[in-house]
Design a protein that fits this description.
heterodimer, A: 416 residues, alpha/beta, Rossmann fold, 16 helices, 9 strands, 39% helix, 8% strand, globular, B: 498 residues, alpha+beta, Uridine Diphospho-n-acetylenolpyruvylglucosamine Reductase, domain 2, Uridine Diphospho-n-acetylenolpyruvylglucosamine Reductase, domain 3, Vanillyl-alcohol Oxidase, Chain A, domain 3, 3 domains, 5-stranded antiparallel beta sheet, 34% helix
Chain lengths: 416, 498
């Protein structure tokens, strides 16, 4: 059962300072690109913000408000990008995003999961992927002569996005092979990571799936999981420990590749195209990717947490490896956007099937920001950011996946 | 008359359906109680987001016609930003967010929805700055200048925000658009005064009008030259951003003192020498909180800071040349030596140096909320440096009854004094914290405020109390600023609903 009561301290601590909505001074640059919360910027009303969600949670908790369809639509339009959470935690000891996620769980358990999310849930439960495509086709993109190492304790977790963007997984395979990394795939044993279930508040189903996945990893002797999907990465790091004890290490392909580059195990072509790129930090790879550490204690006078809590403030997300890769590729010039690193503006993807106009606005804002720094290409490494940002508009910007960009620039071909 | 569908339709016709709502779950975002003022607020009937002064005027007229309360708000961080009764129309001025900087004449025209995180970097690009506390990135500069207080560390060579207001555009309680200063004669935004009686004092008063006299929809504020580095060097990832005020022409020093009179002497001497960009006797509790990562971390550092920096004087030297900096440093060290100050340990001073600009925009000060979020200011007075020190000394007469019994946080020296106009003027603030986990916490806070007010009355210490505190002000006698009395008289004369 959802338990908003556990978040009462956060819910009752909000002073409406507004820091959840605006860029932190450490990255401020001017009038433009100063907003941080996509739903607040689009819908304008304070309820559409971290602060507003806490206020709503407070009324739900006190029984003054009940869940209903309109409220559910609002709760699920939020992309749960966590910008509010990280901004609040700049000066406070509060769990804003966890409150939003718990509010969704409460909403789902009250029977108000929006139809699009219900459908997504059914697809994952029935077909083990978010698209509802046949499970047996999950790895159908692999060349017939592909060979992995069945004895390896490192697994490349393809993720559901392999259905739509198999080129990213092929690129990851190429990088790992070129770098001499021994790995295996899980084939029919690989199911959805469960990120969407956890984040939509379908906890019972998420727990079931996550436990099943962890048992599979154990049965296969997996010690390290590598993924090219930011969403899977964020789920393994920030979601799984909420449901089950985990002992395996999770790495994003950019972390592995950056290290291989540093070790001189990946050689890059020097005839690459000159281009100015900007890097978009995916929420689940950046600010939301710190490992979750369970805390079950008491908040005492003056907000002291007993026992002391390990906070996830977004400081230790995966920020540098993608940038190291971009800086290493000959011809690539990296230009940072104002809203970058832990202060990245969300791509808006998760709101797309609730309010398409909002999602388009959010992605458009990001493309406008990318164009404003003179970028010709916006690079990221999340399949969902790709779907949001790879669009046609007046900015004449190309989208490139970082894993694919790196693989294309490898001098020595891997043996796929 | 009460709020009705007809009123809603009239308001929607002004702003458009997209910018008005009466959905209860959206109204919930503007009625929640806050930790420092844990009282329930009535819900507004609707929230409406006007985009122009004319739309605000139309909304006020509709409210007048239907005898409805109305309220205009931008950030919601102060207790008066909530409905005070039934049938209230809540105006959110977020869409009014245009700004313009006149570099040549050094002023900025701002609307309520412009935030400090937007204005501050824009004026810095032109080597300019402004003298108002930012209260966090999302705070509204217009509100700081025209509606509330907000003394800032950079005011040492400058003055209070209220003295920087130039042209002001507002909607009166009658729903009319009023333009003051040079705007009144269509001469532009550059000047606060115009033929006839000056309206700036009436608009701004001593402590802000707190909404009594209308809704300020646009104003121009004077800007100062900003000494120090043109580019602020930044490092780190939140929560450990660093913003350096370094370079050849900028240095930050923190000194510790044994007693308040010595601090006072140092500030006055610095003022006479007309050196430094920022000088202040700073709160030692927030100073510690600003260096901590959590409430737990605070309690690990508090004893050290309490012993090491009980009475810190922060000095920021910012000059036009390295030679000028060396000159100012030499004088500074002479003054500090003569007034018996000592440099604090380098680790603490360094921390301050790495965050100096953060303090100028006061974002890190929000860390005071880390101890549960329950704080309150008092002794918010303004006159001379010596007067502020006298007020500081009077705090010891009543504070120990509260700190020794655990009614408020044990930090009896936790007040700041900000000298302005090179020490010709100054302001003070005692910031105290009460524990909201204590069932009597709120009661303790109210008792403490009463005790503070009693010493003000005893010594005739006036405070920048708003008109809502009239009865309290009356007790303080003739020395108390009478701005609230004038405000109420004006309101009675012009506000049809007063």
């Amino acid at each position: 059962m959802a338990d908003l009561n556990k978040l009462r301290y956060t819910i009752e601590s909000c002073n409406h300072c507004g820091q959840c909505k605006w860029l932190l001074p450490g990255r401020m640059s001017g009038w433009d690109f100063a907003a941080m919360c996509p739903i607040h910027e689009y819908y304008l009303f304070d309820a559409y913000s971290g602060q507003g969600m806490l206020n709503i949670a407070g009324e739900i908790l006190s029984g003054k408000m009940s869940h209903h369809e309109d409220l559910a639509e609002m709760l699920y339009t939020c992309t749960a990008c966590g910008a509010c959470d990280i901004n609040c935690k700049n000066v406070r000891d509060m769990e804003v995003l966890d409150t939003i996620l718990e509010l969704r769980r409460d909403c789902a358990e009250a029977g108000y999961l929006p139809e699009v999310r219900k459908t997504e849930l059914e697809k994952v439960m029935n077909t083990h992927n978010i698209y509802g495509l046949p499970h047996e086709q999950r790895f159908s993109f692999l060349p017939e002569d592909f060979k992995d190492d069945p004895e390896a304790d490192t697994v490349l977790f393809a993720g559901c996005s392999a259905y739509r963007h198999p080129e990213t997984i092929l690129a990851a395979i190429k990088i790992l092979k070129a770098g001499g990394v021994k790995f295996r795939l899980l084939y029919e044993d690989e199911w959805c990571c469960g990120a969407s279930l956890w984040r939509m508040g379908a906890h019972k189903e998420a727990e079931e799936l996550i436990k099943r996945n962890v048992e599979t990893f154990r049965a296969k002797g997996v010690k390290t999981i590598i993924t090219a999907c930011a969403e899977c990465f964020g789920a393994f790091r920030g979601g799984y420990p909420r449901f089950v004890e985990t002992e395996f290490r999770t790495l994003h392909i950019t972390q592995v590749a950056a290290e291989l580059l540093q070790q001189g195990k990946l050689l890059l072509r020097d005839d690459g195209e000159d281009m100015t790129v900007t890097y978009h930090d995916p929420c689940m790879l950046g600010r939301l990717s710190e490992e979750y550490v369970h805390w079950d204690g008491e908040i005492q006078s003056w907000g002291v947490h007993v026992p002391e809590k390990e906070w996830r403030r977004g400081e230790f997300g995966v920020y540098e490896p993608p940038r190291e890769i971009l800086r290493a590729i000959p011809g690539v010039k990296l230009q940072e956007m104002v809203r970058s690193y832990e202060e990245a503006w969300c791509c808006g993807h998760k709101g797309a099937d609730i309010d398409g106009e909002f999602a388009a606005y959010t992605a458009g804002e990001r493309r406008r920001e990318a164009a404003s720094v003179g970028a010709e290409v916006i690079v990221s490494c999340c399949p969902f950011c790709r779907e949001a940002l790879d669009s046609k508009d007046d900015y004449n910007l190309k989208y490139m996946d970082l894993t694919e960009l790196l693989a294309d620039n490898l001098r020595e071909e891997g043996q796929v | 008359m009460s709020f009705s569908d007809q009123v809603y339709q009239e308001l929607a016709a002004v702003v458009g359906e997209r910018y008005i709502t009466r959905k209860d779950f959206i109204l919930a975002g503007n009625r929640a109680k806050t930790p420092e003022m844990p009282v329930a607020h009535p819900s507004a009937e609707c929230i409406v987001c006007p985009a122009t002064t004319e739309e605000v005027a139309e909304i006020v007229s509709i409210c007048l016609r239907h005898d409805l309360r109305y309220l205009a708000c931008v950030t919601g961080c102060i207790p008066s930003a909530y409905a005070s009764g039934p049938d209230t129309v809540f105006m959110h001025l977020k869409r009014m967010n245009h700004m313009e900087i006149n570099v040549e004449d050094r002023y900025a025209i701002i609307e309520p929805g412009v935030r400090h995180v937007q204005l501050y970097p824009e004026v810095r690009k032109h080597g300019l700055s402004y003298a108002a506390a930012a209260v966090g990135p999302g705070g509204s500069p217009l509100v700081t200048y025209a509606v509330t207080g907000g003394d800032n560390h950079v005011q040492y060579g400058a003055s209070r925000p209220c003295r920087y207001l130039l042209g002001v555009e507002m909607v009166t309680p009658e729903g009319e658009i009023l333009r003051t200063g040079s705007l009144q004669t269509d001469s532009g935004w550059f000047c606060a005064d115009s033929p006839g009686p000056s309206l700036r004092g009436l608009v701004r008063g001593y402590s802000g009008n707190n909404g009594k006299l209308g809704i300020i929809t646009k104003c121009a504020i004077a800007l100062d030259q900003c000494k120090g580095p043109a580019e602020i060097r930044r490092e780190g990832i939140s929560p450990h951003h660093k913003m350096f005020m370094d370079g050849d022409c900028s240095r930050v020093y923190v000194f510790n003192y044994e007693n308040i009179q010595d601090v006072c002497d140092a500030m006055l001497a610095l003022g006479e020498a007309e050196i430094a960009a920022t000088v202040q006797k700073y709160f030692y509790l927030p100073l510690t909180l600003m260096m901590t990562d959590s409430a737990n971390d605070f309690f690990k550092k508090w004893e050290y800071c309490k012993k090491t920096v009980p009475m810190p004087l922060v000095v920021h030297i910012a000059t036009q040349s390295p030679e000028e900096r060396e000159y100012e440093e030499k004088i500074l060290f002479d003054i500090v030596h003569e007034t018996k100050g000592t440099r604090i340990p380098r680790d603490l001073e360094m921390w301050w140096e790495e965050h100096m600009d953060y303090f100028m925009i006061v974002t890190r000060l929000q860390s005071v909320l880390r101890l549960g979020g329950s704080w309150f200011p008092c002794k918010a007075s303004a006159e001379s440096v010596q007067h502020m020190c006298d007020i500081g000394e009077s705090i010891s007469e009543f504070i120990y009854d509260f700190t020794d019994t655990g009614k408020i946080f044990d930090a009896p020296e936790n007040y700041q004094i900000i000298p302005m106009e090179y020490s010709h003027f100054a302001s003070s603030e005692l910031l105290f914290m009460w524990d909201r986990f204590n069932p009597d916490g709120f009661k303790n806070m109210m008792e403490f405020m009463a005790a503070s007010s009693a010493t003000d009355a005893k010594y005739f210490y006036h405070g920048s109390t708003s008109s809502g505190y009239g009865p309290s002000a009356e007790k303080k006698g003739k020395l108390y600023s009478n701005a609230h009395i004038w405000m109420e008289q004006i309101q009675k004369a012009f506000d049809p609903r007063a």
